[in-house]
Amino acid sequence: MRSKRRKCMIGTGAMSDPYMHIEEELRLTRKCLEIILQYGFGVAILTKSDRILQDIDLLDEINRSAKCVVQMTLTTYDDKLCGILEPNVCNTKRRIEVLEEMQKRGIPTVVWISPILPFINDTEDNITSILNECIRVGVKGIIDYGMGLTLREGDREYYYAALDKHFPGMKERYIERYGNSYALPSPKAGELEGLFQRTCKANGILSRPDECFRFMNELPEKYSQMSLFDLNQYNN
Which architecture does CATH list for 32-147+186-227? Predict the structure, then answer.
């Protein structure tokens, strides 16, 4: 007799975006979602790509039979600056449209607003614009690991080379303030964090990472106890 195993949420996207350009051809993520749906698991998926809309039908089915949480990274509201910082993905406004489409289907969403780059996108206007859109499209939670970024050896050299290319003189400003530090908090971190927390609290949005991850990890018991066939009967 086969042992009974408890269903759970399956997460993807933390280490590599599941909707890279090659997905247009391979559609491996869709195949994975089909298996997740078939066996009654939930999914929490993180991406920066609007290609996820190609699978919104499956995400909708998973959310109705178990649970689906779609996560998007939003760090830079200005389209021109977004194009510099994230040149190979759709811009923030398009990602907000993705969140809006998920909302229409009743699929819960979570936003990541890290990293915030000191002296570049660490402005009150930028954070406020992103938060206002999150409120408008009804996100469930927003994950913030501090208003700043972290740089490991190797990452630092790559990042500084990019600063030299796109923001002449900025590398020297970073070196003067941070040296070789791993953590690079924005000089405005306290102010921006206060704005973030107040806004989330006023609008009922989860704002602590542990709260957001708890929500994404929890699979409703009522779903795990019902077969997909039974649930379809119930919904009909």
Answer: Alpha-Beta Horseshoe (3.80)
Burial classification of residue 227, based on how many CB atoms lie within 10 Å of its CB (0-12 exposed, 13-18 middle, 19 or more buried): exposed
Instruction: Read off the amino acid at residue 188.
Output: K
| Whether the predicted pLDDT of 231 surpasses 50 | no
Which two three-digit tokens encode residue 70?
A: 């779609």
Report the alpha-carbon distance of residue 65 to residue 219 in Å, rounded. Answer: 11
pLDDT in tens, 101-138: 999 999 999 999 989 999 999 999 999 999 999 999 99
Mean pLDDT of 217-233: 57
- Total Cβ atoms within 10 A of residue 49: 22
Please return the burial class of 69, using the count of CB atoms within 10 Å of its CB with bins 0-12, 13-18 and 19+: buried
* DSSP state, residue 154: T
Which parts of the chain fold into alpha helices (H)? 23-26, 28-38, 56-65, 79-85, 92-104, 124-136, 155-166, 170-178, 189-202, 209-217, 221-224, 228-235
Q: What is the pLDDT of residue 151?
A: 95
Distance (Å, whole) CA 154 – CA 47: 24
Amino acid 169 reads: G
Domain boundaries, the chain: 32-147+186-227, 151-185
